[in-house]
Structures are given as C-alpha cells and as structure tokens.
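Structure representation.

___
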Amino acid sequence: MSRKLLLALPLLLTGCSYYNSLYSHFMDNIHTDTLQYQCDEKPLTVRQNNDRQEVNFIYDNKNLTLKQGISASGTRYSDGIYVFWSKGNEATVYYQDRVILNNCQLQTARR
C-alpha cells in the first residue's frame, strides 16, 4: 500500500501545482481592470492590475508589461523603455522619452 502511495505522490503534487496555477491566473483576472482609450493615433486597450502595480498592453505587436513607478502627478508605469502615464481620463505612451500615443481619452473601464 505504501509503495503505491509513493508512486502516486508525484502525480498528486503535479495536480496541486496545476490547480494553484489556475487559481493564481483566476485571481489576477479578478483584480485586473480593462481600460479602453481612444488616442489620436489609434485605440489602445490597457489591462491594469493594481495588486501587482502594473499595466499590460500591446503596442507594435509587442506585449508590454510596465511596473508602476514614482510620479509627481498622475500614475506612471515603465519598463525602462516604454512609459504609460495617465492622469484622470487621459493617458500618454512614450518610447524612449518620445511620445508615440498622444491625447488618449478613456472611453470605458470594466472589471
């Protein structure tokens, strides 16, 4: 009996790991808001996770995840290359200190 249990233990632990991963993904989705912006150049969809203090969006076929940083006004997220800065219902996206998405107006926010 104990030998069968020892053989089954790795399988059971793998199952626990799988469900833990699903739970983590589920919880991230609960704490993530989807923000729809209309910028001068094009629309922008931003996923904001306040628990992780990060935003995620796709720009130029790149999936970008930016961490929240220090801002004198509004909220600033950066990965050292890209910056997403928002204040109220407006946002701007920078690439190496150059504006690439300007005058982004919040259209909708949903959880």
Residues 18-29 have pLDDT under 50 and may be disordered. DSSP finds one helix and eight strands in the chain.
